[in-house]
Design a protein that fits this description.
The structure holds 2 protein chains of 2 kinds. Chain A has one domain. Chain A is mainly alpha-helical. Chain A has 3 helices and no strands. The model of chain A has no long low-confidence stretch (mean pLDDT about 85). The longest helix of chain A is centred in the middle third of the chain and has 23 residues. By secondary structure, chain B is an all-alpha fold. Chain B has a single domain, classed as Bromodomain-like (Up-down Bundle). The chains are: A mainly alpha, B mainly alpha. Chains A and B meet through helix 1 and helix 2 of A and helix 2, helix 3 and helix 5 of B.
Chain lengths: ~70, ~190
Amino acid sequence: MMAAIYAILLIAFVLDLLGRGRLAACCLFLSFIICVWLFLWEIYSPEYGFRMPWLQVELGPIFAPLRSV
Amino acid sequence: MRGTKNTGGRIAVVFDRISLLGMLLILAAILTAAMIMQYGFGEIPCPLCLLQRFAMFGCCFGLIVQLRSATSEQGTGISLIFAILLLVISARQTLLDLFPRPGHEYIGSAIFGIHMPVWSVLIAVALLLGLATRLALFGGRSYSVMGDGLLTRRLVRGLIIYVVLLCAINFISVIIQCGAGECHTFGYRLLR
């Protein structure tokens, strides 16, 4: 899939060089869509989904006295 | 009075062109450095690193469009979209590797004590700031690109061809590393 993204990007650059601006923009948009899809696929974990449980952002013990007030 | 206004306008146009050219030059240098790190120092890029390179190429595409057409801001819009994409991907990778654990630590060596995804966050923020500042200072100004000197036109043309060549090299590199399937950092799929 990564190869497809770079192939379409290269085609977009070449089309732009040849003066086919609109077609080049379409290719770039297509590669952008595939890139977003691949990014979501890469970061998705069957265990955590899109969450990042290693980042703990709950209130720590330092704030416990404030919470009790 | 009109002469002073024209001179001011010309200076603004020159600064506008320099800012676009500067951003494209810096991005081309970063992408060249990435290739040197990959093949000179054996640091195989991860899939998210390759997607960040793609986002940088997208920014280059926008800047090239903007350098060619001075009557619309379409190129700046394209660059802004890809700068945001770069920021999202690099911020996610930074958060992914923030706490080193088995299978998740920063890939590659640190440059000036900062790892690649964190550099990418800084690059994306710098790009967003640069493009926004350019729009704030010179946005909506239409002028003729034909007014550029011969040297500037040759420089722009040379830089565009260099970026396209870099893109072609990256494409071949991705084919060698990933083939038609998933990308890994263990080695080059086609060289096993």
